[in-house]
Amino acid sequence: MTEKRIYADNAATTAVSDVAFEAMLPYFRESYGNPSATHSYGTAAKRAVEDARKKVAESIGARINEIYFTSGGTESDNWAILAAAGLRKKKGRHIITSAVEHNAVHNTVQQLEKRGYEVTWLPVDKYGMVSPEQLEEAVREDTILISVMTANNEIGTLQPVRELAEIAGRHKVLFHTDAVQAAGHIPLDVRELGVDLMSLSAHKFHGPKGVGALYISLRTALPPILFGGGQEKGKRSGTTNVPGVVGMAAALEDAVRRMDENVRKVTALRDRLIEGVLNLPGAALTGHPVQRLPGLASFIFKDVKGGPLVAALDEAGVCASSGSACSAGAGEPSRVLKAAGIITAEDVAAPLRLSLSGYNTAEEIDEIIRRLPAALKRAASESVLAGPDNMDVD
Amino acid sequence: MTEKRIYADNAATTAVSDVAFEAMLPYFRESYGNPSATHSYGTAAKRAVEDARKKVAESIGARINEIYFTSGGTESDNWAILAAAGLRKKKGRHIITSAVEHNAVHNTVQQLEKRGYEVTWLPVDKYGMVSPEQLEEAVREDTILISVMTANNEIGTLQPVRELAEIAGRHKVLFHTDAVQAAGHIPLDVRELGVDLMSLSAHKFHGPKGVGALYISLRTALPPILFGGGQEKGKRSGTTNVPGVVGMAAALEDAVRRMDENVRKVTALRDRLIEGVLNLPGAALTGHPVQRLPGLASFIFKDVKGGPLVAALDEAGVCASSGSACSAGAGEPSRVLKAAGIITAEDVAAPLRLSLSGYNTAEEIDEIIRRLPAALKRAASESVLAGPDNMDVD
C-alpha cells in the first residue's frame, strides 16, 4: 500500500485536534495536581476543571452545575439509564427506548429488562427515524424514562429529539438522549431541546478518548452509580481526569466556534461522496436523505459482506467501517438496518459507513470513489467463502 | 513565594513520567484508531492496548487475560465490590471490610449495606493494621466478599494481605484488595498474595489520570457493571482509552523495573523526613513504623488544624495534604485516625501527610523540615479561629 491513507471512520473515533492537544499538554507533567487537593497544585488543577466545565456547559446551552464529567459516552449512558431507573422506581418500571440505539443504551436497557423493568422498543421508519406519534401512544402511567439518541451511529439519521422530549415533559417522564454522535457535529442546546439528560463523548469530536460528560438538568436529582471520594459534587467519584476534561472542553468549544463553516464543508464532502457512490451498481443510501449527520455517508451493497469490504478498502488505503454491522461476536446482521427494514436476517448485504471530518478533503472523497469499485469486486468474490461477518464497535 | 516549590503530595497524584508521556504521545494524533475497528488504524490501536495489557499483567504477576482496563481506582473498586456482591448473592449477603479503607471501597460497601447486605467493619490496631485473627473470627457461612486494602492512603500502613487472602481462600470467600497506593511502590504479585481481585490506578505511579485496571483472577466470573459495545471481552464496555492504557503500562513497567532502587531511595528520604519532623514539639508519627509505604510519612500535630497547616505549608512552597483528613464536606475528623485510636471526635489535631516520589531530593526533605516550624506556628494561631476543617480527597 503506497497510496496516501484516507481516514473515513470518524464516527468510530477521531484524531485529537491540535487545539485540544495543546490545551491538555500542561496537565500531564507540569500542572499535574489533584483537583481535590487544597494546595496550589490542587487549586490550579481545580481551576482548569471548572473552566472546562464552563466551556462544555456553554457549548450545549447548559448551566455550569449541570455538567458532570465521566469516562466517556458509555459511562454517561449507563449512569443516565441505571440511575434514572433507580430514582423513579416507586413511580413505575416502564422504560421507552428506540430499536436503533447504540449498544451503550440498548444493552443497558436490556439489563434493566432482566431486572424486572418493562421496556417498549419504539420501531423506526425506513430511514431509521422514530415517530413522535408512536412515542405518544407508548407512554403509560408507569413510564419513568424515555431514551432516544440524537443521531444514529450507523446510518446518521437525526431523531426528532425536541418533539420527543416535549412529549416526555408533558407526561412528566425523564428524557435522556445519547448525543455522542451529534455533539460537536450539529448545534445542540439542551434547553431548546428540552431534554433532562444528555450523554457526550470527547473522542467523537476531536477530543481525547476516555472522557465524556453527562448533562443532568438542575430539576433532575440523579443519584450516582460510582461511589467514593465524592468528586463532582458527590455525583461521580474518582479523581478527575484533568488533561482529559481540558482536552474535551477545548475540542468542543472549537467545534462549536467553527460549527457553521464545518457543517457546510463536511456536508458538501458527504454529498459529493454519496453522489459518487450511488453511481456504482448495487449501491443504496441508508438513513435519512436530509435529516442526517453532516459527515456520515452510509450505504448498503447487495451480495457483498461488510467484513471483506472493510478489509478490501483498508488494503486500498481507506479506513471505513461496516457500521457496527454486527452485534458482539455473533455475526448477526445490524440491528439498526433490520429495524429500518433495510435488510433481513437472511440477506447478504454489506453496510458501508464512511464518516468524514473537517480534516478530509475533496481529493480524498474522489479517491474513495475511485478506489471503491475494485474493493467491492474483491469483497464480492471473497464474500462467497467468508464466515460470519466481522464486528465493528464504536 | 519565591522559593522553589516542593511537591510532597504523591499519594494524592503524581506527575506523569517522561517514559509514560512519550509512550502515550503517538496515540493522540497519529495512531488514533478505535481498537474495535477492523482497519489498519484500528488494529494498530488494538496492538497497543494488548501490549499495554501484557505489561500491566507482567508487572503484578497476572496473566494477560486477567487484566481489565477501567477509568481508575474508583471504578475498579466499585466494579469489584458491586459485581462480586451480585455474583455471590445466592450464597449470602455478608461482606467483610476494614474500618480504614479508602472511600472508594468504604462508601461502595456502605451502598450495599443500604441495599440489605450485612457488613462487618474490621477494627485496626494503633498502627491502622487489620489482624488475621479478627478476620478469621468474622468469617461466616454467608460471607461472600472480603475487601482489605494493600496500603493505607492516609497513614501508609501495609496490611497483611497474604495472610488475609489465605483465610478468604480457605473459606472460599472472594478477596479483593485496593492496591491503588501500593502498585508501583512496593513489589506486588497477585499469585503470591492469593487475591481474587485487585484495583490499580495509573496516576498514583506516574501514569495518567483517568485510567486504571482491575485484576480479575481467571477463577472469578465477575459480571460487568457497565454495559454497551462489549469491549474488554464483554466485561467493560466503552471505547478503550488507548493513550491512557499505554501510559499506564509504561509507567508501571518502569516502576517495577526500578523498584528496588526506588524503594531504597524513597525509603531513605522518608526516614530522613520522619526523623526531622519528629524532632519538632508536639509531632507524632501515624501508621506503622516499619510496615509502611516507602514514600509516605504521616504525622499528627496537637492543637493545630489540618486545613490551616496545609495552607501555611503551601504558602511556604510545600505541597502537602491533611491526609484525606475529613470526609466529604462535613468537616469530620479522619475515619482512619479515629479507627486507629489516634484521635477522637473532640480532638483538635492536624494530620499531615507528606508523600514522596523518586523525583524528590534530600535537599527538598531538608527544606520541608526547615519550613515546617513556621508553618506550624502560623497554623496554630489560625486554628483557633478556623471553621470546619478542609477536605482533601485522593
CATH overall fold name of the largest domain in chain A: Aspartate Aminotransferase, domain 2
The portion of residues forming beta strands of chain A comes to 5-15%
User: Which class best fits the helix and strand makeup of chain A?
Assistant: alpha/beta
What is the molecular shape of chain A? globular
Measured by residues with Cβ under 8 Å of the partner chain's Cβ, the largest interface is: A-B, 77 and 77 residues
By CATH reckoning, the class of the largest domain in chain A would read Alpha Beta
How many β-strand runs of chain A? 12
Q: How many helix segments of chain A?
A: 13
Radius of gyration of chain A: 21 Å
- Note poorly predicted spans of chain A: 325-330
For this structure, the quaternary state is homodimer
Order of helices and strands of chain A: EHHHEHEHEHEHEHEEHHEEHEHEH
**CATH-defined architecture of the largest domain in chain A:** 3-Layer(aba) Sandwich
CATH superfamily membership of the largest domain in chain A: Type I PLP-dependent aspartate aminotransferase-like (Major domain)
Instruction: Average the pLDDT over all residues of chain A and give the rounded result.
Output: 94
Total domain units of chain A: 2
Rounded to the nearest angstrom, the distance between the terminal CA atoms of chain A is: 25 Å
| Neighbour order of strands in the largest sheet of chain A | 2-8-7-6-5-3-4
Helix content of chain A: 25-40%
Main sheet summary of chain A: 7 strands, mixed
